Amino acid sequence: MYKIPVTRVNFALLKKFNGYKPFLYNITTDACRVLKYPKSNPVFSFFHSLFAHHSNMNHSCPYNHDLIVDKLPADFVNTKFTKILPFPVGDYLFNSKWIVNDINRADVQVYGTLS
């Protein structure tokens, strides 16, 4: 992203049903507020916990640098989605939009299969 700092994040979870369809979550939130007060949005906090220990997104705002997720183990994510929050098997899409000054600056899509 060439414009910083990130102020809002929208994330949606989609499941493949004859194409990817919304599944459970589509939330837009003030990223700085949630990172400072994680209990204010437990759904965002759950998804952030998936990669928080494997990224440099582990401090409070402002985020005025590159955001990196590195060496995220598939077993760790699988445990979160099967034991902590039991999801049905299938193909999923995690879509996130990173918003700066009310303009969508980045769209990140992560595809995965839970089997």
Automatic annotation (TrEMBL):
It holds the Pfam family DUF1091. InterPro entries: DUF1091. PANTHER family: DAEDALUS ON 3-RELATED (PTHR20898:SF0), DAEDALUS ON 3-RELATED-RELATED (PTHR20898). This is GD16752. It comes from Drosophila simulans. The gene is Dsim\GD16752.
